[in-house]
Fold this sequence. Notes:
Layout: H1 2-24, E1 29-30, E2 35-36, H2 53-63, H3 68-81, E3 86-87, E4 90-92, E5 98-100, H4 107-126, E6 131-134, H5 139-142, H6 157-162, E7 170-172, H7 176-180, H8 196-209, E8 222-228, H9 231-236, E9 244-249, E10 255-259, E11 290-295, E12 303-308, H10 316-319, E13 325-329, H11 338-345, E14 349-353, H12 356-361, H13 363-366
Parallel strand pairs: 6-7, 6-14, 12-13, 12-14
Antiparallel strand pairs: 1-2, 3-4, 4-5, 8-9, 10-11, 11-13
Amino acid sequence: MRKHVLTIVFFLILAVGFVGTLLNLGTGFSFAERRVLSEFPKADSFSLSRWTWDDDIENYLSDHLPARDVLTGIGAYMRLYAGTERLDDIYVTRTGQLVESPVDSGEKNLASLEKNLKRLDRLASEEGMQMTVLVPPSAGFAARKDLRASLRPLYRDDMLLGEITGYPALAAVDLTDALCEGDGNRFYRTDNHWNADGAYAAYARYLESRGKTPVPAEAIEYESSPDFHGSTLSRSALWLTPHETIRYPIPACTYEVQIEQEPVRDDLYFREALTSYDPYAVFFNGNYGTVRLINRSPGGEGVLLVIKDSFANSLVPLLLPHYKTVVMIDPRFFRGSVHDLIVSEGVDELLCVCSLKTLVTDAKLRALPG
């Protein structure tokens, strides 16, 4: 009798799994993991000369398992409790902060970094201007004291950041000490970006480098949301990690925002994103080729062009009251001419704000059209 019961239970489990998989086959996006799930393999993968169909179907079924998020989380915690501090490309510090693995400092990346820096230097030189480069060390470098001793030497951010010197049209602002104060507390615990304190530290350092006076931190007004969960949490699958608070500054000026060719807005924040899979998109609703901000209040001077990745999104709201116009371009999506933009906007100040990973690895930087 017991044998029959076990057999029935076994087949019930198979049936539930089969039905659950069928019900989950139409799901195309994982909100927890922030990624597009595998599609059903196309006919061209079934070929005698290029046999990939079995791998493709395996990936497809794996991505569409019922309770996939639960199973992925269980696997991540099992690895964590087994003693690993690395979950794919995410490291877990002793304080529970989730940080990206180090930027590789091998010859290939050093060559890539040199190409990107040469392009930025040439772009500024051709315009007869100097470009300030604002690149933070990674959250892992800032929190390396909380990592296993064997992992700390892998973070060579200081060496990579040192490569920015020696380019006549580039002026690097050192953020290392400012962002490493507090052993990583100026970065989110569940995301790779600097938090409000980190963005303020970068803002203050930049203005001081330009001979301007930053607004005292205590004088800046913020809004906040207590349910922020970032990309390193999504990639780690450690779903029980507590969410944290995100703060975003309210610019002390009236302004207009134009994102690409969309209608002009009077608010740079998209608060609906706070309840989405990507709450960091509260800043400008993500990344675009061109974003233009116009300060309508008195006091702002000059036109600032920011060549950026997503790190700039939380920095620019602090900078806006100091300028008449701030234009942001993201090399990953920008399709125009930088020279034409500089001329048409009357740009008189150049700033590059991006992560170390972007500066080292992103080929779109060196492909930026002049």
